[in-house]
Amino acid sequence: MHQHQTPEYIFITGCAGFIGFHLAKRLLDEGYYVLGLDNLNGYYDPQLKLDRLSILKRHPQFSFVKGSLENLELLESLFEQYNLVTVVNLAAQAGVRYSLINPHMYIQSNLVGFTNILECCKTYHINHLLYASSSSVYGDNKQIPFSVNDRVDNPISLYAATKKSNELLAYTYSHLYKLPATGLRFFTVYGPWGRPDMALFTFANAICNQQPIEIYNYGKMKRDFTYIDDVIESIYRLMKKGPLADQAVPHKIYNIGNNQPVELTDFIQILEKEIGKQATKTFLPRQPGDVLETYADIDELIKDISYKPLVTIDEGIPQFVKWFKQYYKIS
After folding, report:
1. Which range marks the domain in which residue 99 is found?
2. Spatial CB neighbours of 104, under 8 Å, sequence gap ≥ 6
3. Would 176 be classed as within a structural domain?
4. Candidates 106, 159, 190, 227; catalytic one
């Protein structure tokens, strides 16, 4: 009798973004129904978002809606219309440096928008909300590696402050309404179809076009570069595992990182080797909002999903460069 039942959907916000696209693709390949929302904003080249989207649209089990999280009426209509069981909130105004220029975008998207998501998840009794946080919440944390048990009360950028706020809001909803929620603190994610505002992309672009690259803090920065496939595998396993239903407050945060910080200069060296060109380097002082080192303690993640990110930058950067050259038709 059940042939008319509406299928269960996974709702991914920011589905045309870097992580959202890869996650949607993985879920569709695994046979899930996916509803994607994205406002396709112009923070970086929308063509890249449209190209990602066109790949997702080849799947018959994918539905797309163009819109923003700030539009509560639209969100409510989607929760009303679709049988949504899991929500993965990856839509946000991204970028640390841009938050210095356009603070209001961050408040709208990352706070107002996220609160709308929480309200809908509460009202429609969603099984599990997974949401993007960021390693930037650690600020200039003196404890290395960064543990999810560390206090994160000192953000050094507005972007980081909005992500920390997301964690606080999600915790409150979990506490008050037993909303099962999982926070994902991503550490410098890179790979094919990546974000053009991220270092790897801007460096590759400049090196290919023989333009100088700007290296902040004279290259004395370390980042826990995490390859996209490792990130997706981690999210996928956390989804499969489901929320912490047995706890008084069903809320948990994980570091999604590679657990291997790399100095920026080493990163650039591998990139140069892959592209086959030397970079012209301009060394500059540290930028406001930039953190000196990121390093993820992933013990909790390994314990809960039996998975550890595996891809080193020696393996990951070549994958990115291969995609980059194909996509931009660079011989």
Report:
1. 7-190+226-259+295-311
2. none
3. yes
4. 159
